[in-house]
Each structure stands twice: as C-alpha cells, then as structure tokens.
User: What shape does this take?
Amino acid sequence: MNKWMHDELAVVTMTVNGHVYRRAIEPRLLLSDFLRDELGLTGTHVGCEQGLCGACTVLIDGAAARSCLNLAVSLNGKDITTIEGIRKRPQFPAIAQSLSRHHGVQCGFCTPGIVASMISEEEATQEEMDDLLAGHLCRCTGYVGIREAWKDLIQKKAGE
Assistant: This one.
C-alpha cells in the first residue's frame, strides 16, 4: 500500500452556517470538497485549487480564508460560513444591491469569494480593500464596479 493512502477516517465536527456537522472523512479531504461534496453547499466555487483565484473563499471563525488550502480535519471545532450562510445575514441585501448598482457582478463565479472577503472586512481602508481584491481573480468586471460597490458600502456604514 502507498504510504500516503490511509484506510482510516478522521472524525471532524464543525459548525457550518449555524449547523453542527459531525462526519468521518478522509484526512486529506479539502474544506472546499467537504463543503461541496459532503454537505452539498455548492455556492463555494473551486477555480484554481491553489488558493490563487479566491473563488473558494469562505469565513473561518469570521476571517476570510481559502477553502481549497485548508484540510477539513484541521478545522475541527471551527465555525465556517459559506455564501449560503452569508446570504442569511442582515448586511447581505445591501452588499447584493451595491454590487448590482455598481455593475460589480457579471458571470458571478468569483462573487461568493469576493462577498466573503467584503463581509470579513466591512470597514476596510482603500489599501486593505485593494489587498483583499488582489487575492481574487475576476475575468469579467475588471474590478472597477466591485471596488465602487465596496467603497459605497463602507461610506454608507460610516454615515450610520
């Protein structure tokens, strides 16, 4: 038997979008595959599988992280929020409206990951926003609309 192949499964318990899941999984299963294949949460997109495109970004304990770079077993006890969970948050309608108003969405493949980054840094400075967006590949919008939508959200929040 190959030394990297294991017959043993690891048991992982994590909270995903407010629901506690306990599963026996292969130790090498990526979080992105766990979410999509084990839990059926297909809003988390998988693009490059190297952490470069940002499409698989989710929230891990509130911080934006690439699900394709994290082994599911390493997240035992963690709180994971996918785009499906983000859509239930009170701030999501404002994000969706702002992205729409500023033409920040076209094909939508990158959008769930970008929205996760937006949620994780709701009060980002221009520099922080640029840094976060640099970790997301969008082939459709050219980022102008996304930046404008994010700036609009930050300005409206500051005015509250």
The longest strand covers residues 10-16. Helices lie at 31-38, 83-86, 92-101, 111-120, 126-134, 144-158. The mean pLDDT is 90.
